[in-house]
């Protein structure tokens, strides 16, 4: 039983009212126990859709996990549908009823028929206690295959998974190991990175797979090793990680979900350095990323959001002649912004950004997405011109992360 499928039930998932975070968490947890998720399916609160999804999933795998549709209202039909599917009837589970009654009583609420209905379960299932809510989990077994139904409330689903499901599947997969290592990169694009790693991929051992996972300019390289010998799998994956550092050291900034802002914060902290920012087109995005890291008060002094030219000249000390001659979006301007906030703050490093986020304001010479970024220190100022996208939010995000990456590279090279 090394593969599984996940079925999520609920109209709210299909109309975009609720984002399905359950499947992502469940898939990650199952993967760490040696179970590979082959497919995730979302279906509406309709009997025939649930039955069809179950038939298809059980035709492919031996383990199916379901979430959703177990509430007390009329649109929650998963429990009734499962009873029909497994040819049984709903009965009251006394232990579940007692727990629901105790929960309602402790909250000084009145028990009603909807609450009592929560204690109804298919007679053939094994009840999985839900200590975080009123809807129990249910385990069904048929022809050597398992179906486990859990509430859609994330906290309740996680509790049932951790208390009941994960220990069970860990026992089933004992001896099989799946190891994931994520190598985080920034400063290149997917096609270019794949070109640089073409030889690396060809030489990968059969037990290791490589996946490219891009998001907001960050490309996560996920190495997955599988096998029956845990220490050997771990050693093989580690060898491939070391090889990656030898091939693309210029774009790797960390591992295992670490963010650029966390990496930069750590670099500043261990070197006892401080940072200030001067932001125009990013409007404080860089400062927001930096201060999202716990402990950032130890290395971040502050930010000037110099959106207007009057703040650039009046507070940061940018020469008005520089803006008249070259424009606010220019190398000359961003250099003076960086020098100004460095002088103003007394920090060891400063970042400055100015650009055209869009959707308006572009020219043939400086189209939307044109951004100048500078990093200043006592060693001088480096400045780079970038052209990102036509989308405002993408431009703001990419500008902020590119600025952090420039700072990271400056720190480690100093």
Which residues sit in consecutive blocks of at least 5 with pLDDT less than 50?
A: none
Radius of gyration: 27 Å
Count the helices. How many?
16
Helix content: 40-55%
Per DSSP E runs of 2 or more residues, the count of β-strands stands at 17
Largest sheet: 6 strands, mixed
Report the CATH superfamily of the largest domain.
MoaB/Mog-like domain
Question: For the terminal residues, how far apart are their CA atoms?
Answer: 52 Å
Describe the global form.
Answer: elongated
The average pLDDT value, as a whole number, equals: 94
The CATH topology of the largest domain turns out to be Molybdenum Cofactor Biosythetic Enzyme, Chain A
Query: Any guess at the CATH architecture of the largest domain?
Result: 3-Layer(aba) Sandwich
Task: Describe the overall structure.
This protein has 414 residues and is α/β, with parallel strands linked by helices. The chain folds into 3 domains: 3-172, Molybdenum Cofactor Biosythetic Enzyme, Chain A, CATH 3.40.980; 177-255, 2-Layer Sandwich (Alpha-Beta Plaits); 260-413, Maf protein (Alpha-Beta Complex), CATH 3.90.950.20. The protein has 16 helices and 17 strands. The protein has helices at residues 11-14, 22-32, 47-58, 78-85, 94-106, 113-117, 154-172, 190-196, 198-202, 230-247, 260-270, 285-291, 309-314, 320-326, 331-345, 392-413; strands spanning 3-9, 36-43, 63-67, 90-92, 120-122, 126-128, 137-142, 145-150, 177-185, 208-215, 218-227, 252-255, 275-279, 300-305, 349-355, 370-377, 380-387. The strands form 4 sheets. The protein has a 6-stranded mixed sheet with strand order 2-1-3-8-7-6, with helices on both faces. It is elongated and about 85 Å long. The model has no long low-confidence stretch (mean pLDDT 94).
